[in-house]
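Problem 12. The chain below contains 198 residues. Write out its predicted structure in token notation.
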Amino acid sequence: MSTDEPLLRTYRLGNGRAIGYVVVVVALALAVQALWVGEGTTRWSAVSACVAIACAGYLLGIRPQVSETTLALEVRNPVRSWRIYWSSVTKVDADDVVRVHAGDAVVRCFALPRRDRRPMVSGVASMFGGRKLPDDEPVRRGFTTLDVIESIEDRSRSLRGGNAPDGPPEETVEQLPLLVLVVGAVNVLAFLLLLVLG
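Solution.
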């Protein structure tokens, strides 16, 4: 889904992306260790579980991304990718993730989970139910869901019309994430078979 158009802005998972990298590296390291020192079916069940976990870490943490280009909004979800031309964006809102409406189509942006402007609890108190923060507490840093929605709507309004291409959102299923999904699913099945038969 990558194009030669200049990127204006890119959104990715913050902590989820970092956790995705950690999960992939640790899972692959454990798979190598299991190959090195494991024996029998235990070796192969550990390797298949680690590979399945690494696949999930890539698909859910590293891959999701939303990019604003000069012609379109490109949404990369775990398996599917969407290209939504700015002129076809009709509305942007959020439920559990940011959703972009283009006519009758609704594209959910996995890389943009809903974030509240202000955290509800602070510090260690959050583990025990916590307390609401007073109004004078500082707002957390980084962008909020409202900031992202406003940015996408503003860009859509400013780039609508003129020479902008128009059309429905284009959906593609890329080969790499589909391959990672299949490898992960096969390894989950292998793990379960080794667990039952081993």
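Discussion. Strands lie at 7-12, 65-69, 72-76, 80-85, 91-94, 97-102, 105-113, 170-173. Students who got a different answer should revisit the alignment rule from Section 12.3.
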